[in-house]
UniProtKB/TrEMBL annotation:
The lineage of its organism: Bacteria, Bacillati, Bacillota, Clostridia, Lachnospirales. SUPFAM superfamilies: alpha/beta-Hydrolases (SSF53474). It holds the Pfam family Esterase. It comes from Lachnoanaerobaculum saburreum. This is Esterase. InterPro entries: AB_hydrolase_fold, Esterase-like, Mycobacterial_A85_antigen. It comes from the Bacteria. Transmembrane segments: none annotated.
């Protein structure tokens, strides 16, 4: 159901609901600064925003979308679960992307100062996969950051190479924990090779690509890693 419920937290932070998504906009007081979309598994992205502030990244509008149906909204197509007790991935990315572009982004742009210098998209884990997938489905995003992206997803590497981006971003950031590929799961084990391969692939296409390997596993310092990725594309 479409509804807008605004809750003012402070002068630079607003929350509103739209189609059951809980959206938090961290606004810059400056005009015409970048707008970055960050899809999150849980919470409102405050930890990421604080890390960005600590890094001196104050010239940014950060749009955080929460209450996401994670395995549905962030997955490009159906894939069985990689764990027996978890839901399968049901391929709702196209529908969610339409909602993001047609409804959520326009509302956010009404609330910020001026026009964004550029619009970027960032995400961690499955949202990192979604950020890369969005490059192939829309020309809205100028820059992309995929932190510990789920680039092990079935047939995703082949999809990227078979298809053309709607708009090749001028900057793309990839990162991964140096222990993420140390697993017995044969699907997850491919994540580092795939991330490195895609980094080189987009670099060869002409994007400015940054690949960074962080210490730790998939769940180490997620807010800090997310902020580092967003900073890299600013």
């Amino acid at each position: 159901m479409r509804d807008y419920v605004f809750i003012m937290i402070d002068l630079n932070k607003e929350k509103f609901n739209m189609y059951n998504k809980v959206i938090t906009l961290y606004k810059s007081t400056d005009k015409n600064v970048p707008l970055i979309v960050f899809n999150t598994f849980e919470g409102d992205g405050e930890g990421v925003y604080k890390e960005l502030q600590n890094m001196g990244c104050s010239f940014i509008n950060l749009l955080v979308v929460g209450n996401i149906d994670w395995n549905h909204d962030m997955s490009p197509w159906y894939m069985p679960s990689i764990y027996s007790k978890e839901k399968s991935f049901s391929g709702g990315a196209d529908g969610y992307l339409k909602l993001l572009i047609d409804e959520i982004l326009p509302k956010a742009k009404e609330l910020i100062e001026g026009e964004p210098e550029f619009i970027g998209i960032a995400g961690y884990s499955l949202a990192g996969l979604f950020a890369v997938y969005a490059m192939y489905k829309t020309d809205v995003f100028d820059r992309v950051a995929s932190m510990s992206g789920s680039l092990w997803f079935y047939d995703f590497m082949e999809y990227c190479k078979r298809n053309d981006c709607r708009k090749l971003p001028d900057k793309i950031y990839f990162s991964l924990g140096d222990k993420e590929a140390n697993t017995r799961n044969p699907i997850l084990k491919t994540v580092e090779d795939n991330t490195r391969e895609l980094s080189e692939y987009f670099k060869n296409l002409g994007s400015e690509v940054i690949f960074e390997l962080n210490k730790g596993n998939h769940f180490t310092n997620t807010s800090l890693r997310s902020a580092k990725g967003i900073k890299a594309i600013l």
